[in-house]
Amino acid sequence: MQNSDQPRTEINTLGEFGLIEHLTRGFENKQANTIKGIGDDAAVIGDKDPVTVVSTDMLVEGIHFDLLYFPLKHLGYKLVVANLSDIYAMNATPKQITVSIAISNRFSVEALDELYAGIRAACENYNVDLVGGDTTSSQKGLIISVTAIGEAQKNKLTYRNSAKPGDLICLTGDVGAAYLGLQIMERERQIYLSNPGIQPDLEEQKYLVGRQLKPEARRDMIDVFAKAKLVPTAMIDVSDGVSSDLMHICKQSGVGCFIEETGIPVHQDTKLMALKFNLDPITCGLNGGEDYELLFTIDPKDLEKTKLLPDIFIMGEITEKSEGLKFHTNGGRIVDLEAQGWKHF
Ligand code: ADP
Ligand code: MG
Fold first, then answer.
1. Best probe residue, ligand 1, of 19, 20, 149, 344 (max atoms within 8 Å of C-beta)
2. Which of 35, 110, 162, 226 is exposed most, by the fewest CB atoms within 10 A?
3. Mind listing the pLDDT tens digit for each residue in 161-173?
4. Left (φ > 0), alpha (ψ -120 to 50) or beta: where does 161 sit?
5. Which residue's alpha carbon is nearest to atom 8 within ligand 1?
6. d(CA 41, CA 196)
7. Which phi and psi (to 5°) does residue 225 adopt?
């Protein structure tokens, strides 16, 4: 494949986002109905109103999940939810999905039935139709890809690149729980590997494990926004972690931000478990991924509209780009916001 004289650049020198930028540079959108291409939670396509939004995600066994502790039914459910979350992050409503799988003969029909039971449960809960996909074999392991298709009024769409200095930064729900759920499952896995006779006991940490194994997307917020006649100025779903995802908004909007430690919603169970693992709860809240909450910005004149809305927390404010990305600690220190996010490479 490669001439030995040619330089070889390792993927990890670019990182995931650098690699995407690198590979997609030089592509220009030529179609008049491509409204938004690469760079947001979903692409936006259409000539008329409402427009179509499209998003794809792929999960790879051994990288994103371990079937030792991740039941196939939950896996199917979670993958669909993760995709729908990207559609909601556009303030759009998902309508259809396609599902593609690559499987080795390690999997039985019964095992795949379980996977599809999870996919079906998500389709029912979120009212989306499974309309296609592809099935092929893999040498080992399971690879699943889901594409979600949704619909939105053009003037309701929420992009990542439209936050303005002075906008308030808001977050739904709480963050860090899914990350700690993963830590618990990982710990149980280690115990199981060293002594297969011991069955994992995950019951005690139902909330945290549930946030990892059976996350839900914030479909409710799309209705809440519509009822309150509120259109966020920018929005992203929290899949990589609050810091990393807020950085996407800031980078693409060409702005800075400050967030307050007191503004980061962390569940009591998350706090307690973080301390048990010798982790800082706020760091888990900022950098843990897979929360599938919505991180959005609003014009301050819309503050009144959000005051009475449930489950929305104000974390901070968008600033001028020159002010950078700052985090105000409870101790009164101001530090640079750092994104660890998920590193796949
Ligand atoms: P999210 O975390 O919301 O799923 P990603 O970080 O995966 O978003 O992707 C960011 C953007 O890059 C999206 O617009 C996505 O469609 C695009 N993208 C990711 N991988 C590729 C690729 N290999 N080729 C083209 N576009 C890609
Ligand atoms: Mg997203």
1. 20
2. 110
3. 999 999 999 999 9
4. alpha
5. 41
6. 41
7. -60, -45
Quick: pLDDT tens for 232-277: 999 999 999 999 999 999 999 999 999 999 999 999 999 999 999 9
The widest CA-to-CA distance across the chain, in whole angstroms, is 64
Pocket of ligand 1 (CB under 6 A): 20, 23-24, 38-41, 57, 86, 239
Question: How confident is the model over 20-40, as pLDDT tens digits?
Answer: 999 999 999 999 999 999 999
Pocket test for ligand 1, best of 38, 45, 64 (most atoms within 8 A of CB): 38
- 200 pLDDT tier (thresholds 50, 70, 90): low
Fill in the amino acid letter for 149: I
Q: pLDDT at position 343, please? A: 46
The structural domains of the chain, ordered by start, are 40-156 (3.30.1330.10), 168-336 (3.90.650.10)
Ligand 1, atom nearest to 89 Cα: 3
- The angle at the Cα of 332, spanning 172 to 338, to the nearest 5 degrees, equals 55
| 341, pLDDT greater than 80 | no
How many Å lie between the centroid of ligand 2 and the Cα of residue 179? Answer: 17
